[in-house]
Predict the 3D structure of the following.
Amino acid sequence: MSLPIWTRRRLLSAGFGGLSLTTLAACGGGGGGSGNPPAPAPPDYRPVAQPFPLSLHSAVALDARSVAVVGGSRGQPSFSASVDLFDTEAQQWRMGASLSTGRSQSQVLALDAQRLFVHGGARSLSGSRTAEWVDLGRGTSQPALASPSRLAHTATRLRDGRLLVAGGSSSEGYFGGVSPTLELWDPQTGQWRFAARPLQQPRQGHSATLLGDGRVLFVGGFTGTGMAASAELWDPATETSQLFSDPALGRAGHAAQLLPSGDLLLAGGETGATPQAPNPGVLLLRREPWRVEALAPALPSLAAASAITPGGALLLFGGVDPSGQAVAAALQAGPGVRALPPLPSPREWLSATALPSGRVLLLGGENRGALATSGLLFG
């Protein structure tokens, strides 16, 4: 069975010594992959200066005005090791730290406004440590203890401060290369261990959502042979999970939002051996008792960048169509789907970071191998 586009293209980006296929195209024509000048922004988008071309990176909000941008493809022969800080109010960039190796598509958690946990993704140096602790106050990065390499996995901060790393395409030797294992990290001691039991299904490209009671809800993903049409509710107290299956849950690369009711809103992603938009495109997963409710038909793009605003709106930007071409679509998902003004130009591999102001910072991305050289502030 061939891998879905969402999964396959991320795995391809890990090859060539850390050089993505799209970056090869971007570097081949010179000019650092800058491509054509960016199109004028629609009224709802404000241009943001971006001092380097950028794609396949990770971004996380640190406080009310600062966003950390980690690694990615920056038009160079290997992935970037830079951790840069962007002040959304002053519209200024500065260097925060440098990783021990270049990375793309890593999972990044902000422990506080000065410390980051960076795990997995594609690495420029294959023998480097999988995880790193980053101290932005000192501008330093320290490799964490060795752990299995992972791509398209999840990282979640638990209520007790521990970090939970789950699934992904891994080096552990599981069938199809997809892992069911869970790792628990203690940021105070820097120590890690495997959870007592793995997930009941291996998952890659799944979602992981921390619930109000401290449990974590995993949904969907690719198993190595097909889509995981299921959800698992994992309890950190017992390190065991409850499994619920439903065909509508079979999707990867989707967005997940916890609602005030405790139910989970799922939107977008892809499904199938050949890339297809899941139908329904938006659904509600109710739990205890478990049941699924369809809310909206298939969405126009796959693997869109998602952000949840402080007001609880789930927004999706860009992504690709079933043929793998970048799109400019933007929408708000909920009980219905509301179209937002489209991006000035198509973008995939961009990041979307919700800010306390209610705006969303959109950075990087690419279109047909040309890396974006400017960002956008939506809202």
Remarks:
- Residues 180 and 199 are 5 Å apart (CA to CA).
- The helical segments are 5-12, 21-28.
- The chain has a mean pLDDT of 89.
